[in-house]
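Narrative of activities, Objective 1.

The group set out to show that a structural description can be obtained from nothing but a protein's sequence at a throughput compatible with the screening campaign. Below is one input-output pair from the validation batch, recorded exactly as produced.
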Amino acid sequence: MTESPENQPESPAVAKPHILSRGNLGCMALAGILMTGAILVAVSAWRLNTFVTAYEARFLDQGWETLDGSTITEDTAIESPTIIFASDITLHGATCDIALLGGDATLMGRYSGNVSFLGKTLDIHPDCVIEGKLLIAAARYVSVRGTVIDGIEGSWDRLFGPTGGSSGQESTSDEGR
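Output recorded for this entry:
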């Protein structure tokens, strides 16, 4: 004879974990923090890409020549407006405006136009003379040991040279140096 469900003996109560237990809340909080961090990294990468793309477009839209590679060393003066992409750049002058995009750059010689820079470290060698402006879109370290006649404009973390160890955004005129 089969017993009806009402007549069956009760089985011992088994405790079911509550979905909002302490362990689950910790995991959910950690997942939320990781998700927020991933979103912030993605937004920062997108903003950086937008900034670099806009910097490039400013020059490429004007028909400037491009020079790229991992290491660029030019022993002669550049004679036409050029944007240079490289992680390590060493130049010895230009008779026109130039733009640098990359990691580290060292400038020597004479530059008759403006020099634009977006990168990590810029070193203006003691024999370097920039007759135009030094326009810094963004840089970590800028070392000015040479002469910049029309001034320095832009944004950097640290500027070393005769103007002192300044930080931030500035516009300085270095005429008469």
